[in-house]
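Sanity check

After download, print the first record. It should look like this:
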Amino acid sequence: MKKLWLLSLLILCSCNEDEGTDNNDCNYIPQTLETTNIAAYSATLNGTLSKTPEGCETINNTEQGFVYASTIQPTVADYKVNVNGTSLTANIENLNPESNYYVRTFYSNANGDFYGNEVEFTTTEEPIAIGDYLAGGIVFYIDPNDPTHGLVCADEDLDQGWWGCYGTYISGASATAVGTGQANTTAIVNSCDDAYFAAKACDNLVYNGYDDWFLPSKDELLLMYTNLHLNGAGNFDTTTPLPYGYKGLYWSSSDGETDGNAAWIVHFTDGSSYTYDLGIKNNPLLIRPARAF
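Expected structure tokens:
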């Protein structure tokens, strides 16, 4: 009986001595947080690792961070990002637009691979780019404050024509800035009764399923020149002979002279812009419609 009592005491003491000191029992609680900064090709992964039990001071992880995949329950056999620390953040790239992904926080040590909860996220649409064919035309301007909107131009010219209203200055069509072409066009159409003129030709146009085309302002035309023509896009005409032997002269909707005799044109051979003499309103010049999206 005495020997049995001593054996029981030794076992009890051994258990109490080892409790809370075996690092094989030291693990983390991985938690996957909401994915942020989601874009078409990239995202930011977020998570935490919490120590448990409280008395465990040393945890010997071999790896830790995130695993992600386009299928559920990703593991270390899928895409893996190693991140140090207990507050985890990682930026990932080379994703596919408009695609679902699944991510989990993970860590690995001598005991194996351990995973946190799963978070799903969806990448955004592929961003619109200059030169894309969209909304009936070719993108030549993207709104910096809202990249889902901008301006496109038709991919071909209309028949050559006058600016119209020779001798009449249209103050409502004097704006030159980006975003003013539509208002300029409306003012010209409401003020001129010529049979065929540049603004009216654009305003009447139905092309690629859209009927809200307009004659671009001077600065809008300059963007077509810079963003498209200089990059070999847009099919702009710089070979057809025009008045005075010039080529590549395009009408803008920006009225330019208070005497009413000349409006702004853009020269697509060098990107220059003029009113007199090349922009005399009764010159038959090139016409390229634009529209907003």
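If your output differs, re-run the checksum step. Summary of this record's structure: The chain is about 15% helix and 30% strand.
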